[in-house]
Amino acid sequence: MCDLRSKAPRMHAMAGDGLELLSLVEEFVVGQQDSKAEDIATGVTTGQFTILKLVEGLGSVLTSCEPRTRGRGVQLLSSVIQQCYANLQEQEVQVLTKFYENRLKDHYIITPHVLQGLKSLTMSPALPSGLAVSILGSLFQDIHVQSLMQAERFCVYSILLNLMGSCEGELKGLGANFVFGFIQAMDGEKDPRNLLLSFQIAQNIINRKYELGTFTEELFEVTSCYFPIDFNPPPNDPHGITQKDLVLSLRAVLSGTPQFAEFLLPLLIEKLDSDIQSAKLDALQTLTACVASYGHKELKEFLPSLWSSIRREVFQTASEKVESAGLSALHGLTACLSRSVLTCDSEDSLETFLNLIVKDCQHHLCEPDLKLVWPSAKLLQAAASSSFRASCKISRVVVPLLLEQYNHHVQSTQRRTLLEVLQKFIHSAKRSPVEEGGESSLAEYRQSLCSVVFCALSDSSSALQTSGLRTLMAIGNHPGLLFGTDIELAVDHLSKFILEDVDNETSLVAMEASGSLACLHTTAFCSRMVPALKEKILSDCLGGSGETPPAKSQQALFLRIVRALAAISTHPNLVRETVPILLQVLSASHTGNVQIRQEDVISVCQNLQCIVELAQGSEESACYFHETVIPYVLGLSLQAAFHKERTLSPLREEKVLSALVPVFSAASGCSQHMLAAQTASQILMLFLVGDATFLPENNVPQNVNLLKSHSDNSAQTQLVCLLMGCVCSLPINAELPMLDQLLTELEELSCTCLHPFTYTSAAKCFAGLVNKYPSGQKLDQLLENTLTRIDTILTSTEPSSSSNQKQAFTFLLWLTKALLLRYHPLSAPLTDKLLCLLVDPSLGTLAADGFALLMNDPPDVLNKACHADVRMMYRQRFFTETAPKLVQGFNSSPKEMKSSYLKALSHILNCLPKQVLISELPALLPLLLEGVSCPDSEVQLSTLSCLHPLLLDIPQVLTLHLETLITKLLGLTSSAAMKIRIMSLRCLHALTQLPLHVILPFRSRTLRALAVPLDDKKRLVRKEAVLARGEWFLLGGPGK
Amino acid sequence: MAEGTRLENVNPLIYQRSGERQLTAEDEDEDFVDPIDDREIFDLIRSINDPEHPLSLEELNVVEQMRVHVNDNESTVSVEFTPTIPHCSMATLIGLSIKVKLLRSLPERFKIDVHISPGTHASEQAVNKQLADKERVAAALENTHLLEVVNQCLSARV
């Protein structure tokens, strides 16, 4: 009794549900309300209804004698299953599947819904075993796939894919019948979406080793008939299928199994012989893909035809793509033959194939004047680089031949070609994997190779010398080819090229070769090149009396030596030899014993920086820099600053000091944090309390505060830039003693000092430290005090402090930069301050240019190399926040103020990544067009240089404004400034990329206007005009 | 290139390309007037593609700087070109390409003379006559097929 009572309400509820279900079904079937399917599906998922009830409810509909009604019923059932197939019980799936299989025999208008339902059922995890076979049986038997619509065919392929995923074993049990069914189903398919699926099925069949039985050729036929794919997606294609997707998918099928080889290879050869470029390319790439799984058995009979097709393409093609695809295919073929295991009675097919290649190519190597020498060399190299065996075989023929030809031909152009071919062979021999314990395939020609190279180096033709140097580099980097006295000879040659007045390219290559060989052959460079360079720089460049200025050739020699010293400093041992020479030069210039131009001193500093950067990873070198180099250079700078008799020392010059900053910052940013921190605190003590005990030849006055500014001590205060280089490059968590005192002194210096270099450096130093200062109350307090001080100066009307406005502005700018980089909340109000200053009569231009600083990485501080706190995408963020304000300011400001806004905006745009620009540009375009016609030539130029990359990348956004743009650009081709004329012509050139129908109406007008700059007085302008006009002429013409 | 088509000269001699013109300080100087010189004219035509090889006229030595003469003041240009073989059927086409390139790239004031280097081609005079005849050059460019080949020779190589 109890039970019954408690069940009563539930039964009542169920009866209610049943009625509700029936009415929903009614509304769907008769009322044609598709949304009801959703409601029922929700009910089934939540457990309100069961599938069984639904089928019962559909009873009369499914048995109706009107096909449309039956169809509607099946549609409802399928939509519900689609929503809840995951929750179905095994029993339910079984019954439903049987039902659906049966329905396949029903009227054709029902079929789409039946397939939809079957597709959902095959996704069910509860699919009972044995059903897959029966579904496939019904499908293949009752349905003719190709007479269905696209969506239904798509369903069939999805069903196959689903079953392949879940019931692989059962499908394989069908034997070749499955493959046969699939072949019948896809035969004649045309839709790209369906093709992608059916290629996927074919790929699975091959990769998962389904039995192909007697249907191998049929499967190949039914897929290969699409090769090569020629598909142009319609414009605005919503499916996003590209030619490339189809090509790659089909390639995976065709190249998937060696069983296809006998059919595929003839097809590829046929397509290679066609006239269509893309077909050749596809054929070559497919060949490269398929040989990866082939052996010599498959290839054997086609090798001669494949070779002759590849050879023909590489010899005759005008397209680099076809050439490189041909070379990769040859590389693949040779690699495949090299891999194949030979049986004792088969011939060595690699040997035969290589003989064929060598026979067809080697005689071209004997004609170094003719065109085919290069393609022949490339073919041989492609084959040689595929395996050690191939490399040995080809080297044994080619290298002696080239060496002999080199001695046979005497003209330097011929020798040069031969040497360059030889050099490429040495490279490709290095690429081919050397067998365990084996010697390089070139080892036996070591002696002759060296003598040919030395012969080229002693030639009088500089082009031949350059090729000789390149070959020397190749030999030197190839293990085991250069040793003993040959190295010494090579180093002597290199020294000669650096010390003698040869042409520019040769000396650059000599420099590069020295750099690359120095780390392998350190001793020879230490004992031979360094002394030679040292003697020359000390005797010839610095040995002069100091009275007469050095000749031009001497200056060039000086620069070459300095550069070479930096280039070879690739090893700690070499660093210890080369750096003292550079320091000696610095010291000599400082004492004034010799006269060295300022730019030469700067280049010494720059090369010193290169050495420090090159040696960044080495602990040994880092020790040397911190213990010896930095104190020495700092000592020299201090002497220059303090000693009256040293007023001529170049170390007092701003430019020289600026060049020294990166040396300090590179040393301080090195990976040896302990050393860097120690040096930094020593230098800090020197600046704050005048403790100079760590300096050599310490003869500076004790206890001087270098950061206190007086009227005439700018020579001393400007040394703050070196302090900046040192303390601002430390890692972010490094601790500095007396940091807060330092910040106070720096603030004072940058607000009050009158010397521009000093106050800017102090501001930069402050900014560099604040950027890394841990956030918290202390930082907030510090910033608040500083900003109040800046504000007071900027807003003051007193004449005494208005002279300090520039200092305050510079300080504000650098502080903004420091905070912007670390996403500090104060950066937004500070940026607003800068925006306000854009209309300031005296600071407006400075403020506009300041935006360039905010967006760019400064070379010496606040960049990644200085370990600054630089957040990702700060530029984009800055742009998003600032651009609307700039646009607004531009629109609301009076005409004479507008250019500051435009300038600031174009500075920002110039630094943004293209992807961001492309999305933001449409909104800013009117403003940019305004910029083009702004009278300020600097704004014009920067707007044009901002427009140019956009025109190259996304010309379509400009389509709407084309009329205005072309008129303005044509106007600018007669601007007074050469750079603007050039830039506007480049933009006009870029416009030719627009779709033809858009641009063609402007053709004749533009051609007429472009005739004028053809007669420009500047050659650089004429060059751009010729390029632009040539492209405009080709527009719409045949042959473009 | 299909199996059937054969080039007239399969393996021609190739020559070194001259590098880009070196920039001088005067080139950068706004006020200095750069005259149009031989090298500038040569730079205009040296990169024209050969109609049948993937090579430039310079690499085939069809044009050389020493065979280019310009007088900026008198507005005259004279270019001699040398076909790779004396029976080269492409000679007229090459001459036409050079002429069209110069017409498109030089100010209108220039009188342009393009002819074959004396004694290097079998039908030298006939070709020279064709190239000198304004009407015939204009008529040739009306021919779509000819214009197509000329435009291909003048296009930047892909």
TrEMBL record, chain A:
Keyword field: Cytoplasm, Cytoskeleton, DNA damage, DNA repair, Nucleus, Repeat
GO biological process: one example: protein maturation
UniProt main location, coarse: cytoplasm
All copies of domain MMS19 C-terminal, residue ranges: 562-992
Classification via InterPro entries: ARM-like (IPR011989), ARM-type_fold (IPR016024), MMS19 (IPR039920), MMS19_C (IPR024687), MMS19_N (IPR029240)
Domain of life of the native organism: Eukaryota
Every MMS19 N-terminal domain range: 55-316
Gene Ontology cellular-component terms listed: cytosolic [4Fe-4S] assembly targeting complex; MMXD complex; nucleus
Intracellular or extracellular location(s): Cytoplasm, Cytoskeleton, Spindle; Nucleus
Keyword DNA repair on entry: yes
Keyword Repeat found: yes
Family in the record: Belongs to the MET18/MMS19 family.
Assembly description: Component of the CIA complex.
Job description of the protein: Key component of the cytosolic iron-sulfur protein assembly (CIA) complex, a multiprotein complex that mediates the incorporation of iron-sulfur cluster into apoproteins specifically involved in DNA metabolism and genomic integrity. In the CIA complex, MMS19 acts as an adapter between early-acting CIA components and a subset of cellular target iron-sulfur proteins.
Name of the featured protein: MMS19 nucleotide excision repair protein
Species assigned in the record: Erpetoichthys calabaricus (Rope fish)
Protein's gene: MMS19
TrEMBL record, chain B:
Keywords: Chromosome partition
Biological process per Gene Ontology, one example term: protein maturation
Pfam families from the UniProt entry: FeS_assembly_P (PF01883)
SUPFAM superfamilies for the chain: Fe-S cluster assembly (FSCA) domain-like
Superkingdom to which the source organism belongs: Eukaryota
InterPro entries membership: FSCA_dom_sf, MIP18, MIP18-like
Keyword ATP-binding found: no
Gene Ontology CC terms: cytosolic [4Fe-4S] assembly targeting complex
Domain MIP18 family-like: 39-114
Protein family per UniProt: Belongs to the MIP18 family.
Function: Component of the cytosolic iron-sulfur protein assembly (CIA) complex, a multiprotein complex that mediates the incorporation of iron-sulfur cluster into extramitochondrial Fe/S proteins. As a CIA complex component and in collaboration with CIAO1 and MMS19, binds to and facilitates the assembly of most cytosolic-nuclear Fe/S proteins. As part of the mitotic spindle-associated MMXD complex it plays a role in chromosome segregation, probably by facilitating iron-sulfur cluster assembly into ERCC2/XPD.
Known partners and oligomeric status: Component of the CIA complex. Component of the MMXD complex, which includes CIAO1, ERCC2, CIAO2B, MMS19 and SLC25A5. Interacts with CIAO1, ERCC2 and MMS19; the interactions are direct. Interacts with KIF4A; the interaction facilitates the transfer of Fe-S clusters to KIF4A to ensure proper localization of KIF4A to the mitotic machinery. Interacts with CCDC117; the interaction is direct.
Protein name, per record: Cytosolic iron-sulfur assembly component 2B
Organism: Erpetoichthys calabaricus
Top-level taxonomy: Eukaryota, Metazoa, Chordata, Craniata, Vertebrata
Gene that specifies this protein: CIAO2B
